[in-house]
Design a protein that fits this description.
single chain, 656 residues, alpha+beta, 4-stranded antiparallel beta sheet, 12 helices, 15% strand, flat
């Protein structure tokens, strides 16, 4: 039963109540008009897609669909409560009238009350039952969306988080074995070169007796050999200096930390957008309201039944029957009615970014620049909780790497994105996983807008008229050195008449799109320069130089609207040695502080139209910005702007 049908019932009951109130001073048969009751029944059974009547100016006349907001549900319940309360008042008026003057025939009222009881049982109560079922179905559907937020595949065997955790455990064991062997070797070395072990011939003079110091030394030699062999056999096999293994462990910790962080942040973002907790709260209120309404309807049925029981057609007995008090108000609310299963599914635990099954916050990371952070990391990873013992291991006193900064940005599916397969729902939040779970029949970067693919509706072609105003001197109100020159010709090279152009204003006059201006040193576009001027003021001195413009060309370009990603490496680009994990940035139009030592970049467009560009600066917040702008694509070592000198970067979307 859709809310649309009930909406019409509310209107019918409302007008019936109004009629009964106006006519309360008349015969009660008018209060229970059979025609009105017939309209009530028809309202439940007529075409469910029929629009409600607009003859009466009421506050809520729009069609109510099952997918309407919870606020509309609240409105319908409020109207129903008002209607039911009015029914109770009207029945009370009838009860009062029969007590005042029970004489005469009540057959017509009995027939009307019987029809009224049928309407409550077969229509209003059925509506509440159906609404309960629909609420349960809505919660189940939303709960399924909630469950998919966790991206369980990422924590399952073969998932990127699980794989990163396995690699972390592998290198944790390798590094720990190295430090254990190192402790045994140091003990052996110290003992071997100490005076007690350096015996003379006289110290070894008794047959069959081994010098005590050499017994100790032999034990240390055996321990050193055993631990060295154990270290060599620990996967990955081989031996080398322990700081190198420590660096590998810490690099893999950074990789696991990033994968876990992004998976958790994506899950939390999806959960917030799904809104299951808020829905549960609203549905609990609605189920309570339904129980209350059900009790009220049961009381109304009881009162109607009492009246009908009194109207037995025997004039001699009706008077005492009418004077019998009913016990309808004793009916209690049935707490077992309309109970919803609102269990919120559990997903991998991410509170405070605590590792699943562990106690280490992944926000604690190794750092070679933050001593306090490094200390916290070493205490958490090189202590007793992971089996480290000062007597058995050489405990690292410093960190060997620095984890890159990580952050998560919510991505909203563009309205232009259409016809995505269901699998893309996962990537709308887990964008960092694009390409990790491709199959022979599904390629995320082809199918999903979040991964740079999908069926994005083409943007409308730009259509604008523009104007360029150029000056020989500065822009107004400074000294323009004479009157300006104005051009509005589109898509053609126009020879300028002012010699010595030193400032410009580009203005959009009409239409959609972005006005751009290209300039050349000669006529008809000869000697065109690479820089393109956008809308706005371009004061002296001009980027392309002064006194050197011979012709200009106005064009209308699409308004840039894209999301971009820059991937940086402190070494080479993959598959060469990146010298540690990669770092990703997707923040648009803001200077973002970077890690030190960046030596190569990849600029990628994720969505939209326009060209992704990256500006870099030597300092933070854009201080020391360099003139070179990196475009989309790979920018390997050595970089145009130099290496190890980038302090911040800014990702922008420019007109193509």
């Amino acid at each position: 039963m859709r809310l649309l049908a009930t909406w019409q019932v509310f209107f019918t009951l409302f007008f019936w109540v109004a009629s009964s109130t106006l006519d309360s001073q008349h015969d009660c048969a008018d209060d229970f008009d059979n025609t009105v009751l017939m309209q009530t029944t028809l309202a439940f059974t007529r075409d469910r897609d029929l629009e409600p009547s607009h003859e009466h100016d009421h506050a809520n006349t729009a069609e109510l669909h099952r997918d309407a907001s919870l606020g509309n549900h609240a409105d319908s319940n409020s109207i129903m409560e008002t209607a039911v309360q009015s029914m109770s008042t009207t029945i009370g008026a009838l009860e009062h009238k029969v007590h005042q003057d029970p004489s005469g025939s009540w057959d017509e009222q009995a027939f009307t009350l019987s029809s009224f009881r049928t309407t409550i049982v077969d229509q209003l109560q059925v509506f509440l039952d159906n609404e309960h079922d629909q609420d349960q179905a809505e919660f189940i559907n939303r709960a399924q969306q909630h469950s998919s937020c966790g991206g369980n595949r990422r924590w399952e065997a073969g998932g990127d988080v699980a794989t990163a955790a396995a690699e972390l455990a592998r290198w944790r064991a390798k590094h720990q074995a190295c430090r254990s062997s190192e402790r045994a070797w140091r003990t052996y070395k110290t003992t071997a070169i100490s005076p007690p072990s350096c015996a003379s011939e006289s110290d070894i003079s008794t047959s069959h007796v081994v010098l005590a110091a050499h017994v100790t030394l032999a034990a240390f030699v055996g321990a050193a050999q055993t631990r060295a062999q154990a270290y060599d056999l620990t996967d990955p096999a081989g031996t080398r200096e322990c700081p190198l293994d420590q660096e590998q462990f810490e690099d893999h910790f950074c990789a696991w930390r990033a994968a876990h962080f992004y998976a958790c942040a994506a899950s939390q973002d999806c959960i917030a957008q799904t809104g299951l907790t808020a829905l549960r709260h609203e549905l609990l209120i609605r189920s309570g309201n339904r129980r209350s309404l059900w009790r009220t309807l049961e009381i109304l049925l009881c009162r109607v039944g009492h009246l009908l029981g009194s109207m037995d057609g025997d004039a001699e007995t009706e008077v005492p029957d009418f004077n019998t008090t009913d016990n309808c108000s004793d009916i209690l609310e049935d707490q077992t009615k309309f109970v919803l299963d609102l269990t919120i599914p559990t997903i991998p635990e991410c509170n405070d970014h605590i590792a699943v099954g562990g106690t280490t916050s992944i926000l604690v990371a190794p750092s070679m620049v933050d001593a306090a952070m490094c200390t916290q990391f070493r205490e958490a990873n090189y202590g007793a909780v992971h089996g480290w013992d000062q007597a058995q291991h050489v405990i690292p006193s410093a960190c060997e790497t620095t984890c890159p900064a990580i952050s998560y940005t919510t991505w909203v599916v563009p309205a232009a994105c259409s016809n995505e397969p269901e699998d893309c729902r996962f990537y709308n939040h887990h964008r960092d996983a694009c390409g990790l779970y491709d199959t022979a029949s599904f390629i995320a970067e082809d199918a999903c807008c979040a991964c740079g693919g999908g069926a994005i509706a083409p943007a409308p072609a730009p259509d604008c008229t523009c104007q360029v105003t150029d000056y020989n001197g500065d822009l107004p109100p400074l000294n323009t050195k004479g009157p300006p020159e104005t051009h509005t010709t589109m898509d053609q090279w126009v020879t300028t008449t002012i010699e010595g152009i030193s400032s410009l204003i580009v203005t959009k006059l009409t239409g959609s799109g972005a006005c751009t201006l290209r300039v050349a040193t000669g006529t008809a576009g000869a000697g065109v320069m690479a820089h393109v001027y956008g809308e706005g003021e371009h004061p002296y001195p001009l980027t392309t130089g002064n006194d050197n413009i011979g012709s200009v060309r106005l064009e209308c370009a699409p308004v840039p609207d894209c999301t971009c990603q820059v991937t940086d490496s402190i070494g080479h680009l993959p598959p060469l040695d990146t010298q540690g994990p990669l770092e990703y940035h997707t923040t648009m139009d803001q200077w973002v502080t970077t890690r030190g030592g960046i030596s190569s970049l990849i600029v990628t467009k994720l969505t939209g139209s326009g060209a992704c560009t990256v500006r870099v600066a030597t300092g933070t917040a854009g201080e020391g910005a360099m003139p070179h702008v990196y475009g989309e694509g790979e920018h390997p070592y050595p970089m145009t702007t130099g290496n190890d000198n980038i302090g911040s970067m800014r990702v922008e979307c420019a007109a193509e």
